[in-house]
Design goal:
single chain; 30% strand; elongated
Length: 217
C-alpha cells in the first residue's frame, strides 16, 4: 500500500506537468505548422504613408544629385508611381503558384531628367553615394562600363544601387534606390522602391500615386 501511494505521488508531478504543457505544446506546434504554411507575414502598410515616404526620398535624392540650373530646369520625363505584384509565402506558394496576392503590393516612384552630360552624371552619382552611405544605406551594386560601338563612338553606362538596412527579420525585403545614366540618351533615371506590404481591405492599387508629382526644381 505504501509503495502504491509513493508511486502515485511520484506520478502526480508528471501528470501535472503534462496537463500544463500539453496545451502549450499543442498551440506552439499549431503555430509552427501555420508559419510553415503561410511563411513570414507581410507587414501592414498604409499606402498614403508609403507614397509620402517615396516622394520625400525622391526629393532628397534629386537635391543631393546637385544638377546645375540648366538640368534642374529641364522637364521631367516619365515621372510615375506604380504598384507591383507580391506573392504567397511559405508552403502556400505551392498552392498559389505564380499567383499574386490581391492584398499585398509593392510600391515605386520613378522619374528621369534628360540631357545630363557624363561628367555631371558622374559627379551626381558620387554625391548621392556619399550622402546615402553616410545615412546608413548600403551600396549593393554599381556600374561604370564603357563599350566601343560599331560606329566608333564609346557607349557608357553608369549606375548605382542602394538598399537601406532592415530593422525586421533576416531575409526581409528592404527599401531600395537605383540611379542609372547612359550615353545613348544622356538620361539620368531614378527609381525608388518600397517592399511588399499588406494593404487595408478595399484598397485599390490603381489609385496609388495618381497625384504624385516629380521632385520640384
Amino acid at each position: 500500500m505504501i509503495k502504491k501511494l509513493s508511486g502515485a505521488l511520484r506520478d502526480r508531478p508528471v501528470r501535472t506537468t503534462l496537463a500544463v504543457l500539453g496545451p502549450v505544446l499543442l498551440v506552439a506546434g499549431g503555430y509552427g505548422v501555420l508559419r510553415l504554411w503561410f511563411g513570414t507575414p507581410y507587414p501592414d502598410v498604409q499606402p498614403v504613408a508609403v507614397e509620402a515616404q517615396l516622394r520625400q526620398r525622391s526629393q532628397e535624392a534629386y537635391d543631393v544629385l546637385g544638377l546645375p540650373a540648366t538640368e534642374r530646369a529641364a522637364t521631367f520625363e516619365a515621372s510615375r508611381t506604380d504598384t507591383g505584384s507580391c506573392y504567397y509565402r511559405g508552403w502556400s506558394y505551392l498552392a498559389h503558384f505564380d499567383r499574386p496576392r490581391a492584398d499585398v503590393v509593392s510600391f515605386s516612384h520613378s522619374w528621369e531628367v534628360p540631357d545630363v552630360p557624363e561628367a555631371q552624371a558622374r559627379r551626381s552619382l558620387e554625391q548621392l553615394r556619399k550622402q546615402m552611405t553616410d545615412q546608413g544605406w548600403q551600396v549593393t551594386d554599381d556600374r561604370d562600363e564603357r563599350h566601343h560601338g560599331k560606329d566608333g563612338t564609346d557607349l557608357v553606362a553608369l549606375g548605382l544601387w542602394l538598399t537601406t538596412p532592415s530593422d525586421g527579420e533576416d531575409g526581409e525585403e528592404k527599401d531600395r534606390l537605383a540611379v542609372r545614366w547612359n550615353s545613348s540618351g544622356s538620361v539620368l533615371s531614378v527609381h525608388g522602391y518600397a517592399p511588399c506590404g499588406k494593404v487595408p481591405d478595399g484598397y485599390d492599387p490603381n489609385t496609388f500615386g495618381q497625384d504624385t508629382p516629380a521632385p520640384t526644381t
